[in-house]
């Protein structure tokens, strides 16, 4: 088929590679430059983890992705995935029913080897942590982080080598449709691009480009901070791996120091709803203040260090936190792959196959979870609070 893909973030790039490998004629559009500075994919690091609470489907998919990351490191001839392990620490006992407890149980059930930690073990192995506040948790040696922006560039190179036509100076304006059949798309400079399928992978922009999707998606901005520690040694991955600091309570998670001497810390929280190109897309003084309070309570050695960069990164949120990968029943020929809800990048090595199966309408059991589901409604306020805490 002739396939036009709208948006060259990780969803678009992995789909372009897979669809080209399956012999389709693929054009990939993005206003560019790539990686696009406002894209969610564009960053120095993203967490790669197995832990998904009690959700076995996500853990299985994450296991496949982990094998894929090892394979990509070999294929790319450089490590863009770093297996530092992931640390989940709690401010109280890891109780039954919590996200960490369910993850611990499922990891053990699936024969992984997470290491349980108490306060003295945390102090000995991960001395940057304030062990008067963090007393329980576990370390999973299998996870780590991937250099998302650099991975994106390698995949775009791969797509070009497979004959994908990249238009990194073109923006989608609207579908080109006749009688409910998608014939292609129109770009913002008024040109028509004919295609058998239009695949929209525009992340947080998706429901702005396809307004009838507004009831199902929100674009939520999350704060991300880049700090320069005074004692770099204390933040090397051997003693400061990727971490989640009692996320259902604080929302904060972060990464070891990178080759440029930077420690990235971000917050997974309610977020602020906005258009991805809104003027409001700046980190606020209160988000800064919250971070400083968190650092004082958790990493005293980082409490006063300089923040050299801040950004608001956009989630394409769905109401149930699951991805949205399916054909639009009202627009024959349109396929949407968005709704990352802040957790899609880690699946990059298996994402292309998933999206390509959806485009080709191949039977793939996992696509049931990501199907077109207008029946999923916004949660009541108190439910949202509980849901955000759990996600
Ligand atoms: C703060 C934050 C932290 C995250 N941390 C993690 C993590 O630790 N682990 C993890 O697994 N995931 C994480 N994620 C989620 C991950 O970043 C996303 O799942 C992934 O990057 C989404 O990719 P995408 O291709 O859907 O969207 P994007 O990367 O946003 O790409 C969308 C593309 O669409 C393009 N576009 C926009 N408008 C148009 C148009 N009109 N025409 C053509 N193209 C257009 C944009 O230029 C952009 O390149 C995080 C996300 C955020 C925001």
Structural summary, described in words:
- It is globular and about 65 Å long.
- Mean pLDDT is 96; it is low at 384-391.
- The strands form four sheets. Strands 5, 6, 7, 14, 15, 16, 17, 18 and 19 form a nine-stranded mixed β-sheet that branches. It has a six-stranded mixed β-sheet with strand order 9-2-1-13-21-20, with helices on one face.
- The chain folds into two domains: 2-42 and 149-216 and 320-380, 3-Layer(bba) Sandwich (FAD/NAD(P)-binding domain), CATH 3.50.50; 69-144 and 218-318, D-Amino Acid Oxidase, Chain A, domain 2.
- Helix 1 crosses helix 9 (348-360).
- 28% of the residues lie in helices and 26% in strands.
- The chain contains ten helices and 21 strands.
- By secondary structure, the chain is of the alpha+beta class.
- The structure holds flavin-adenine dinucleotide.
- Flavin-adenine dinucleotide (FAD) binds next to helix 1, strand 3, strand 14 and strand 19.
Unreliable parts: 384-391
- Which cofactor or ligand species appear? flavin-adenine dinucleotide
What proportion strand?
Answer: 25-35%
Structural class given helices, strands, pairing?
Answer: alpha+beta
How would you name the CATH homologous superfamily of the largest domain? D-Amino Acid Oxidase, subunit A, domain 2
Q: How many domain modules?
A: 2
- Using the coordinates above, name the CATH class of the largest domain: Alpha Beta
Q: Tell me how many strands there are.
A: 21
Instruction: Please state the CA-atom Rg, rounded to the nearest Å.
Output: 21 Å
Mean pLDDT, all residues = 96
Helical residue percent band:
25-40%
Distance between the termini: 37 Å
Number of helices: 10
């Amino acid at each position: 088929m002739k396939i036009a893909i709208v948006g060259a973030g990780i969803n678009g790039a992995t789909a372009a590679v897979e669809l080209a490998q399956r012999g389709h004629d693929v054009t990939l559009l993005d206003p560019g430059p790539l990686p696009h500075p406002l894209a969610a994919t564009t960053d120095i690091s993203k967490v790669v983890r197995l832990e998904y609470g009690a959700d076995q489907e996500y853990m299985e998919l994450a296991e496949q992705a982990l094998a894929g990351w090892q394979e990509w490191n070999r294929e790319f001839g450089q490590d863009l995935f770093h297996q530092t392990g992931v640390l989940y620490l709690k401010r109280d006992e890891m109780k039954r029913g919590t996200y960490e407890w369910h993850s611990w149980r499922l990891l053990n059930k699936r024969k992984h080897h997470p290491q349980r930690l108490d306060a003295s073990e945390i102090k000995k192995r991960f001395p940057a942590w304030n062990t008067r506040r963090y007393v329980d948790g576990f370390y999973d040696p299998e996870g780590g982080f991937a250099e998302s922006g650099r991975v994106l560039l390698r995949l775009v190179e791969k797509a070009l080598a497979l004959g994908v036509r990249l238009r990194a100076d073109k923006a989608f304006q609207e579908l080109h449709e006749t009688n409910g059949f998608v014939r292609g798309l129109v770009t913002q400079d008024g040109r028509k691009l004919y295609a058998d399928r239009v695949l929209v992978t525009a992340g947080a922009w998706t429901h702005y480009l396809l307004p009838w999707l507004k009831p199902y998606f929100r674009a939520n901005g999350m704060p991300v901070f880049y700090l320069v520690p005074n004692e770099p040694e204390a933040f090397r991955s051997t003693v400061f791996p990727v971490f989640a600091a009692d996320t259902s309570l604080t929302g904060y998670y972060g990464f070891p120091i990178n080759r440029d001497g930077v420690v990235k810390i971000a917050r997974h929280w309610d977020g602020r709803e906005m258009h991805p190109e809104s003027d409001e897309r700046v980190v606020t003084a209160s988000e800064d203040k919250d971070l400083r309070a968190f650092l004082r309570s958790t990493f005293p050695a980082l409490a006063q260090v300089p923040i050299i960069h801040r950004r608001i990164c956009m989630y394409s949120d769905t109401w149930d936190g699951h991805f949205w990968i399916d054909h639009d029943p009202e627009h024959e020929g349109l396929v949407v792959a968005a709704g990352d809800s802040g957790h899609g990048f880690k699946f990059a090595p298996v994402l292309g196959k998933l999206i390509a199966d959806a485009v080709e309408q191949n039977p793939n059991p996992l696509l049931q979870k990501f199907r077109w589901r207008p029946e999923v409604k916004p949660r009541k306020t108190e439910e949202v609070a509980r849901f955000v805490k759990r996600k």
